[in-house]
């Protein structure tokens, strides 16, 4: 097998490691490309391409994350990772860990960890690497990596959300929710929300938001949906149900099919606990051509005004 063939076989794993460390599709793709360039330039073939390439992509990702954290500290409003529509790496034996680790909620929790803790957690807890491999990847002793893993697990367990185990039930509830959205059935939407549901938006200061971007409570969220749903449908907007970061979600598009935002739903006990929407256009380019959210909002507001006038 050639180096190129070895690398292509491992590309899904390398991207999935980098994305979980970085929370960015574009930065993960860049890290994978840089890994290939280093592998191509290496004078010798490693005994294990998987171990070598995983270590290289991890080190690159740690360095990128250290600089990214400075930018994120100055980020405007809530921060979410770039939405991931499909995780390219599949491992039936670790499917539960993989699905949980890529959720919006889990990736936001990972932001609490130091870059080294995050890398160790991803390699050890998500992908099941041995501590010897983890130590080689992050440049620390096995003992130090065990301590980093303990700290990381503790931080993650303290804030980890508990989602329903039955994926089919989650999908069915999400289907009902987005069907109600498409039909403008506000009562149907309201009955699926938890009492303390959170509607949180990441606009990065580059897209229209409601206040601080965070709305709490079924009544408040329902009122926002009531203001958004009819005019969005009236101006030709569409809702495309889609897995987002391993959980039920949707892509919102304008009449031309351009991406307005993505939604990801956190579901527990038969109710939607959180709706996480990414509006920042810088985070949506990999999903498809990006709409002008400000123009969509202006048209929706004008349409809402016309609707209210016609009803009065």
- Strand coverage percent: 5-15%
Tell me the domain tally.
2
Biggest sheet, spatial arrangement of strands: 2-1-6-5-4-3
Radius of gyration: 21 Å
Number of strand elements: 6
Q: Helix-strand pattern, N to C?
A: HHHHHHHHHHEEHEEEEH
N- and C-termini, Cα separation:
72 Å
Mean pLDDT: 91
CATH fold call of the largest domain: Butyryl-CoA Dehydrogenase, subunit A, domain 3
Helix content: 55-70%
**Coarse structural class:** alpha+beta
Q: How many helical stretches?
A: 12
Oligomer: single chain
3D shape = elongated
As residue ranges, the low-confidence spans are: none
CATH class membership of the largest domain: Mainly Alpha
Protein name: RNA polymerase sigma-70 factor
Family: Belongs to the sigma-70 factor family. ECF subfamily.
Pfam families: Sigma70_r2, Sigma70_r4_2
InterPro entries: ECF_Sigma-70_Domain, NTF2-like_dom_sf, RNA_pol_sigma-70_dom, RNA_pol_sigma-70_ECF, RNA_pol_sigma70_r2, RNA_pol_sigma70_r4_t2, RNA_pol_sigma_r2, RNA_pol_sigma_r3/r4-like
Highlighted features:
single chain, about 300 residues, alpha+beta, Butyryl-CoA Dehydrogenase, subunit A, domain 3, Nuclear Transport Factor 2, Chain: A, 2 domains, six-stranded mixed sheet, about 55% helix, elongated
Give a written overview of the molecule.
This protein is α+β, with helices and mostly antiparallel strands and 312 residues long. It is 55% helix and 13% strand. The chain is built from twelve helices and six strands. The protein has helices at 3-22, 25-41, 49-73, 95-101, 104-110, 115-126, 131-138, 142-159, 167-183, 186-190, 218-234, 293-311, and strands at residues 193-202, 214-216, 238-241, 249-253, 259-268, 271-278. A six-stranded mixed beta sheet has the order 2-1-6-5-4-3, with helices on one face. The radius of gyration is 21 Å and the shape is elongated. The termini are far apart. The mean pLDDT is 91. Residues 105-156 form the RNA polymerase sigma factor 70 region 4 type domain. Residues 7-69 form the RNA polymerase sigma-70 region domain. Interacts transiently with the RNA polymerase catalytic core formed by RpoA, RpoB, RpoC and RpoZ (2 alpha, 1 beta, 1 beta' and 1 omega subunit) to form the RNA polymerase holoenzyme that can initiate transcription.
């Amino acid at each position: 097998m050639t180096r190129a063939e070895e690398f292509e076989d491992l590309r899904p794993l390398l991207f999935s490691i980098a994305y979980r460390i970085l929370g960015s599709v574009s930065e993960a793709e860049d890290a994978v490309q840089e890994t290939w360039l280093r592998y191509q330039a290496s004078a010798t073939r490693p005994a294990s391409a998987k171990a070598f390439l995983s270590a290289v992509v991890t080190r690159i990702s740690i360095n990128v994350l250290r600089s990214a954290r400075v930018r994120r500290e100055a980020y405007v409003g809530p921060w979410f990772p770039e939405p991931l529509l499909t995780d390219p790496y599949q491992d039936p034996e670790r499917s539960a860990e993989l699905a949980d680790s890529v959720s919006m909620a889990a990736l936001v929790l990972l932001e609490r960890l130091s870059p080294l803790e995050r890398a160790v957690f991803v390699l050890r807890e998500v992908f099941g690497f041995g501590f010897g491999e983890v130590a080689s990847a992050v440049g620390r002793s096995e003992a130090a990596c065990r301590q980093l893993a303990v700290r990381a697990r503790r931080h993650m367990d303290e804030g980890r959300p508990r989602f329903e185990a039955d994926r089919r039930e989650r999908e069915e509830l999400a289907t009902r929710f987005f069907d109600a959205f498409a039909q403008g059935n506000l009562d149907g939407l309201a009955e699926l929300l938890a009492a303390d549901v959170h509607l949180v938006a990441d606009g990065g200061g580059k897209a229209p938001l409601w206040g601080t971007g965070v709305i709490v409570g079924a009544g408040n969220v329902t009122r926002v949906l009531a203001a958004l749903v009819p005019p969005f449908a009236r101006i030709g907007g569409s809702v495309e149900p889609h897995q987002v970061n391993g959980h039920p979600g949707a892509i919102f598009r304008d009449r031309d099919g351009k991406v307005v935002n993505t939604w990801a739903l956190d579901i527990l006990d038969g109710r939607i606990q959180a709706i996480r929407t990414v509006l920042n256009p810088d985070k949506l380019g990999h999903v498809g051509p990006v709409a002008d959210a400000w123009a969509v909002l202006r048209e929706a507001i004008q349409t809402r005004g016309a609707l209210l006038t016609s009803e009065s």
